[in-house]
Specification:
Elements: E1 2-6, H1 16-28, E2 34-39, H2 42-48, H3 51-54, E3 57-61, H4 74-85, E4 89-93, H5 100-110, E5 114-117, H6 124-128, H7 131-138, H8 141-147, E6 151-154, H9 157-170, E7 177-179, H10 187-190, H11 196-201, E8 211-215, H12 224-237, E9 242-246, H13 251-263, E10 270-274, H14 278-286, E11 290-293, H15 302-309, E12 314-316, H16 323-329, E13 332-334, H17 339-350, H18 353-370, H19 373-387
Parallel strand pairs: 1-2, 1-4, 2-3, 4-5, 5-6, 6-7, 8-9, 8-11, 9-10, 11-12, 12-13
């Protein structure tokens, strides 16, 4: 079985979709499943592939779409057609990639089935943003993109539930929707480095104060402005803490956050750390009392489960589709998506360090026990086999568990 993923750009700062595609390629490549990735950023991917995976994943360089139309040039369509021809199945990522309609036309011409992972883009919050433009797209090319997919893949049950109405409108058979969690590589978390590495890498961190960590892409939907205001409220209440902001984003938006920090008067205990990765990221989790993410929408949220695996409790909202799993772990705390609610939740958590440490230990044990990559890989392989009509049990999996997966609908 040969599966090709298509993702035009693969730059880490783009966030969770890039990580999902990268990890999915690494996870599923095996002697019985040849994996390819068609992207412009082949060099970046090659640099970051584990040595054992580099030989198992075929990288195909494709040109970027036209800067103005965001569509592939004719010559690039022809080149991509020859790449797709050599695979059994295509795996597309995201709803709104402008070149996706060109790619599915190739699939139709060649008789190749495709899987579409929507990555939370049919969630209620996402559909409320630029709604008219998205509705127009869903009445035209988007309708065909959904309707003709062999499988539509979601990563959490809450995401599947929110996507259902849009799949119905497109005429997609909801029985072919699959809910499989994204793969989680927690190998770095099984033998964590301790907080010292983060302190050395970022000497501005105050080792004596409990740290509230925001770690994600700096984007409006992540709610970091609400967290800045919550930190200011905590400061005015006399709640001892420091606020660490790890991530990158649009420079203009980042500058606006810096201005907000200054205007709220919390510059002395707020640190912008930039992009953090690898063992330093693991160490940063360990150097923090908790992770706070007042997000409006996350379909999966790698950072939540990475924090749990590092022993760091999480404060977030029901905008995270995986909030039931976070609660189940024992280390998840839910709050309404307001500065005041996050202030209350963080203050209560920091007021009881013993309970917070126990939450962290429980969450770490849960994450390392439940996030089973072998089972997740089997679910993806079964989904692909089902698309091709091969004699394998069609994909299974829902919430992140080690127990036997439930059959797909």
């Amino acid at each position: 079985m040969r599966v090709l993923h298509y993702k035009p750009t693969m730059r880490a700062e783009e966030g969770g979709v890039v990580k999902a595609v990268f990890d999915l390629c690494v996870l599923t490549a095996s002697p019985d499943l040849d994996v390819g990735l068609a992207t412009y950023d082949t060099d970046l991917v090659r640099e970051n592939l584990p040595p054992d995976a580099a030989e198992r994943i075929a990288l195909h360089r494709v040109e970027l779409p036209h800067a103005s139309t965001r569509l592939l040039h004719r010559a690039d369509v022809r080149a991509l057609r020859e790449i797709i021809r050599s695979y059994d199945l295509l795996h597309l990522h995201t709803m709104w990639t402008p070149s996706n309609p060109q790619v599915i036309r190739i699939c139709r011409e060649l008789g190749k089935p495709y899987v579409l992972t929507v990555h939370g883009m049919l969630d209620d919050w996402c559909m409320a943003q630029r709604r008219l433009k998205k509705l127009a797209y869903l009445r035209t090319w988007g309708r065909r993109l959904l309707r003709d997919a062999a499988r539509v893949h979601c990563t959490a049950q809450a995401e599947t539930d929110q996507a259902a109405a849009w799949l119905d409108r497109a005429g997609f058979d909801r029985g072919m929707t699959r809910t499989i969690p994204l793969p989680l590589d927690l190998s770095l978390y099984r033998d964590p480095p301790g907080p010292g590495q983060a302190w050395v890498a970022h000497p501005s961190i105050d080792r004596a104060r409990p740290a509230v960590l925001f770690l994600s892409r700096l984007h409006e939907k992540k709610g970091i402005d609400r967290l800045i205001r919550a930190s200011a409220l905590l400061h005015r209440r006399g709640v001892e803490h420091q606020f660490l902001i790890a991530g990158t984003g649009d420079p203009r938006y980042t500058d606006s956050l810096r201005r907000l920090v200054r205007d709220e008067g919390i510059g002395e205990h707020t640190r912008f750390l930039g992009f953090v990765a690898g063992r330093t990221k693991v160490s940063l989790f360990q150097a923090s009392a908790l992770l706070a993410l007042p997000t409006s929408q996350e379909n999966f949220g790698f950072v939540f489960f990475e924090a749990l695996a590092a022993g760091t409790p999480v404060v977030t909202t029901r905008g995270a589709d995986t909030w039931p799993e976070l609660i189940e772990s024992g280390a998840g705390i839910l709050a309404d998506n307001t500065p005041e609610a996050f202030t209350d939740a963080i203050a209560e958590a920091l007021a009881d360090p013993d309970t917070l440490r126990k939450r962290g230990a429980d969450g770490r044990a849960w994450a390392l026990d439940h996030c089973d990559r072998a089972r997740t890989a089997a679910a993806y392989r079964a989904m692909y086999a089902g698309c091709l009509g091969e004699p394998a049990r069609d994909d299974r999996a829902g919430r992140i568990r080690r127990v036997a997966a439930e059959p797909g609908p």
